[in-house]
Amino acid sequence: MVDLPSFDDVAQASRQGALGTDPSELHGALAGWLAGGGSNAQDWTASVLADPQLPPPQSGDALDRLRLVTVAQLEDRSFGFELLLPEAEVSLNERAEAVFAWCRGFLGGFGLAAGAKPPLSDEGAEALQDMARLAQAVPDSSDDEDDEDALAEIEEFVRVAALLLHGDCVMGPRHRQSLN
After folding, report:
1. Does residue 79 contact residue 1 with C-beta atoms inside 8 Å?
2. How far apart are CA 45 and CA 30, in angstroms?
3. CA-to-CA distance for 124 and 89, rounded, in angstroms?
4. Distance CA 82, CA 79 (A)
């Protein structure tokens, strides 16, 4: 499986495209859009950021690769989906804020694509509520090992929640259609 473009490459492309959002939040919005059933189109930034004036990413640039890899990872049956987050060398607070920003982006993109009443399982509805709580969270200013472990657990929860929601809104309906 191909890796996501680097955090720095997406940050640079986001600045060049005047998108006004941080790489983690942008990736969360894209993942939420796709998980909610949004289209896999090259002009995804206009849809995800609800700004029809945004030009589409150039074919092969970091934002286009971000879309292509995210689609492939969400569809991967071996659960290879990854969150676009800063490198481990960045402070724990910055990484925690990036996870919370990813969740905020996910909720926005998911809401735009899935609408007010998405076809969620009980587990999916609970995961979406938990993600909403994380989106409102503020990082603590501690840097101890317990907080590092807690952040790793939160990242894993968010990753699995995104896959679950994608399964509820995209994979489940697609599978039901193929059976009919």
Report:
1. no
2. 8
3. 32
4. 9
